[in-house]
Specification:
This is F-box domain-containing protein. InterPro entries: F-box-like_dom_sf, F-box_dom, LRR_dom_sf. The protein is an alpha/beta fold. It folds into three domains: 53 residues; 57 residues, no CATH class; 268 residues. It is built from 13 helices and 14 strands.
Length: 521
């Protein structure tokens, strides 16, 4: 072996093997072994030795000329390769050690960042907020981040500092937003001293799918795969809002003393069900076979303030025995898709709602006799009336009956009528009665907000609508209101075909700063 080539590194060898015969002029030092110094301060070096070769000419051009190496050359190549592999292992070990040191430094840095955030929290004015305000903020954050498990956001808030931890631990309502999805039927009944009921906390949702009836409860902190949960009645004191959907089992008795809002959607059998008496809001979807149960439960409710009724698959009703329903505190009633016959209307007309202020009718069929009897018997201080009808559900309406209904509620301040069929409610006669002036007492003298919409052309009634609005606009020259009348404050028209008449009349309507005239085209 030629001693003149000793000290040539493995990297130089690779470069020499890759060079051709015409590349001998390149300096071998440019491919020299990399520096093993890791730290310039302490001088730490890699624990390795640079491999040395007996002769680089021995391997010159071997990769290009295609000649197989001799036996003596094979031994030298194996020796060099062994040195190179050892060097690779040494570098890998050093990289691993440096990576572990880097991870350690990153952990120290993250701890300092958290410490800096805690120091900022100590200086934050949020810490000086009273207990009640902090609790309201936490509750708002919790409601915006719902979770089927115990609230993760509440845990995060409680870990910020000791004060916030005390607030979260002392506030059970922050841990009450638990949503359970059950895959078996739902049943609630009383048995001995312990009751198996619908459970849950505030904003709880019960859902059952594809199964037979079995006692189940929701709202506990069990795993997501739990199918049946039994909760003692002593743990149900915090239940405030409950929604039952997609059920196929018997509802039974819901004995929840502090329940405020209850929503029961379709496919929940209500026959024989006993709903809580102290709820404030009830949203109920029922079918014809459950009408008796609906009347019975409504007759027991004394604190109900908001009621929404929706009927499905109503084919008539033959029973005439019913209980009187007196909802003294009811202020809002929404009738959704009520397609009831005359017999049902007569039964519902016996309902007394002396405090009703908001009445909304959406879809279904408009039973004017029912509305008239309801308002006459209750003498309700109705302030807002909304009637939203579609094409298929409404036939011709007896206009004199509608006008007589509006005369029963002289204190009405908001009237909303949406129709998709021409001349069902909106007609020249109606707007002539609503217009101020003339030799008759105008309808709704306290009306302040009027909203009209129709998908049918307003060819015949467009002028009547504009004239009615102008007669009620105090800034208009055609205003004909008396001293006891209230001028119109806003009018919203949703009818593209009325647009030319609106732009002609609008300059005379905009003189009063308090009057809002908007057109949605």
């Amino acid at each position: 072996m030629d001693a003149g080539f000793e000290g040539v590194s493995g990297a130089s060898l690779v470069c020499v093997l890759a060079q051709g015969p015409n590349q001998e002029r390149y300096n071998v030092d440019m491919y020299s072994w990399p520096s093993t110094t890791l730290c310039k301060k302490c001088g730490r070096r890699l624990p390795s030795k640079n491999p040395s070769l007996s002769s680089s000419k021995l391997f010159h051009g071997k990769l290009r000329d295609g000649r197989s190496p001799l036996a003596s050359e094979i031994c030298a190549i194996i020796s060099v390769r062994s040195h190179v592999v050892n060097e690779i292992d040494a570098y890998n070990a050093e990289i691993l050690q440096l990576w572990q040191s880097l991870l350690k430094l990153q952990r120290y840095r993250d701890r300092l960042r958290v410490y800096a955030e805690h120091l900022d929290a100590l200086l934050s004015p949020v810490r000086r907020l009273p207990y009640g305000i902090s609790l309201q903020i936490f509750d708002r954050v919790r409601k915006e981040t719902p979770c089927i498990r115990p609230p993760v956001m509440t845990l995060r808030l409680g870990l910020v500092c000791k004060r916030w931890g005390d607030i979260t631990l002392d506030s059970p309502s922050l841990w009450s937003n638990i949503i359970r999805r059950l895959f078996q039927g739902i049943d609630g009944h009383a048995s001995g001293s312990q009751r198996t009921e619908y459970s849950g906390r505030e904003d709880s949702y019960l859902q059952s799918r594809h199964g037979s009836a079995s006692p189940c409860a929701a709202g506990s902190m069990l795993s997501e795969n739990a199918l049946a949960v039994t909760v003692p009645s002593s743990l149900l004191d915090a239940v405030e809002h409950l929604t039952i959907t997609e059920g196929s089992a018997h509802v039974g008795t819901l004995d929840l003393p502090k329940l405020q809002s209850l929503t029961i959607l379709d496919l929940i059998p209500l026959a024989g069900a006993i709903l809580p008496q102290n709820i404030h809001t009830l949203d109920l979807v029922f079918r014809s076979r459950a009408f008796d149960a609906v009347i019975y439960n409504l007759s027991r409710m004394r604190s109900l303030r908001h009621l929404t009724l929706e009927s499905r698959d109503f084919r008539g009703y033959a029973n005439t025995n019913h209980l009187p329903v007196h909802l003294a505190r009811l202020t809002s009633l929404t009738c959704l898709n009520l397609r009831l016959g005359d017999d049902i209307s007569r039964l519902l007309a016996s309902v007394c709602v002396p405090s009703l202020t908001h009445l909304t009718i959406i879809g279904g069929n408009l039973q004017l006799d029912f509305l008239k009897s309801l308002l006459e018997q209750s003498n309700s201080p109705l302030q807002r009336l909304e009637i939203l009808i579609n094409v298929v559900s409404f036939a011709a309406v007896d206009l004199p009956t509608l006008i007589s209904i509006l005369r029963i509620v002289p204190g009405l301040t908001t009237l909303v009528i949406h129709e998709q069929k021409e001349n069902v409610l909106l007609s020249k006669t109606l707007f002539s009665e609503l217009a101020f002036g003339g030799d008759h007492d105008s309808l709704l003298p306290k009306l302040e907000h009027l909203e009209l919409a129709s998908s049918a052309p307003w060819v015949d009634i467009g002028d009547a609508i504009i004239q009615c609005i102008r007669s009620r606009n105090a800034s208009d020259t055609d205003y004909c209101g008396r001293e006891s009348d209230t001028p119109l404050k806003s009018a919203v028209l949703k009818r593209p075909l009325l647009r030319p008449r609106i732009w002609q009349a609008k300059p005379t309507m905009g003189g009063c700063a308090g009057f809002i005239f908007r057109v949605n085209v």
